[in-house]
Amino acid sequence: xxxxxxxxxxxxxxxxxxxxxxxxxxxxxxxxxxxxxxxxxxxxxxxxxxxxxxxxxxxxxxxxxxxxxxxxxxxxxxxxxxxxxxxxxxxxxxxxxxxxxxxxxxxxxxxxxxxxxxxxxxxxxxxxxxxxxxxxxxxxxxxxxxxxxxxxxxxxxxxxxxxxxxxxxxxxxxxxxxxxxxxxxxxxxxxxxxxxxxxxxxxxxxxxxxxxxxxxxxxxxxxxxxxxxxxxxxxxxxxxxxxxxxxxxxxxxxxxxxxxxxxxxxxxxxxxxxxxxxxxxxxxxxxxxxxxxxxxxxxxxxxxxxxxxxxxxxxxxxxxxxxxx
Length: 325
Ligand code: UDP
Ligand code: MG
Hints:
- The protein is α/β, with parallel strands linked by helices.
- The chain has a domain at 6-231: Spore Coat Polysaccharide Biosynthesis Protein SpsA, Chain A.
- The chain is 48% helix and 14% strand.
- It is built from 10 helices and 8 strands.
- The protein has an 8-stranded mixed sheet with strand order 7-5-6-4-1-2-3-8, sandwiched between helices.
- Strand 1, helix 1 (19-35) and strand 2 (44-49) form a beta-alpha-beta unit.
- Helix 9 runs antiparallel to helix 10.
- It is elongated, with a radius of gyration of 25 Å.
- The model has no long low-confidence stretch (mean pLDDT 86).
- Magnesium ion (MG) binds at residues 103, 105, 107, 208, 213.
- Magnesium ion is lined by residues 103, 105, 107, 208, 213.
- It is a multi-pass membrane protein.
- It is found in: Membrane.
- InterPro entries: Glyco_trans_2-like, Glycosyltransferase_2, Nucleotide-diphossugar_trans.
- It comes from [Anoxybacillus] calidus.
């Protein structure tokens, strides 16, 4: 087999603090892999600037002038980690045999990229990086993340446990991924749907090297909710089941009230009546909320908006004369 061209895609949002170190380490690794004849000399690092407000793009651009292996794509605005990652994958696919996606903060052990590539040589098309332990994450992050995976499983969404978008994909897998045209693309749910021969490589997750998390609680909840509602109708089913149960319960109560009426105690039903009004009112509101969540999805999908807009793509086509800002 010819040596495969590897592209490492790194989405970056306000990562100026950590980026120089990340570049240094990834460049070093890439050179090693080339020297070990595991990958082709054409292999590249592709940094996607997700509309950063700091010096992230300037750093990427400068590095691309110094190193032939460093390339950059600059998105015109902040579109979030998932979309930035997709921008990178789709930009890289035509010039790569396999693509590794990794975060910019060096939390994921980059040395296992070697194993990713070895697995690719063995014929695997998708290799998932899976965290062994999360003891460097905060207590809170660990438990919310665990809850997230459990909830996804319970909702019938097939996700790889403790895997977070650190993976290798073959060019073919990325090409197939592109055919999923939904705008709310939840990668961790879609990639297992692709099928193909896939495997797992374990590693220890470290602490963020510098800078702070771009996933505060609010974004994490939105991410989880997005993941669930774009993959599963279990919440709606759940509501329908509750609806049925309360319907039968109120039938029984109804018979009880009729019995009370005939035995002359009509006043006594007031408490349960007011309770059921509140209960049903609450249930209806929850149901509306959930249905609204799905209608929101439909609304977004029908618009077919592009997920991202590339401003500068140093990898494929120079779009503007001056790319430095
Ligand atoms: N990121 C991005 N766009 C965003 C938010 C984050 O491209 O709007 C990138 C970020 O630069 C990092 C990766 O996504 O490379 C993961 O973000 P982070 O490390 O903050 O998330 P955490 O590891 O805390 O879940
Ligand atoms: Mg991180």
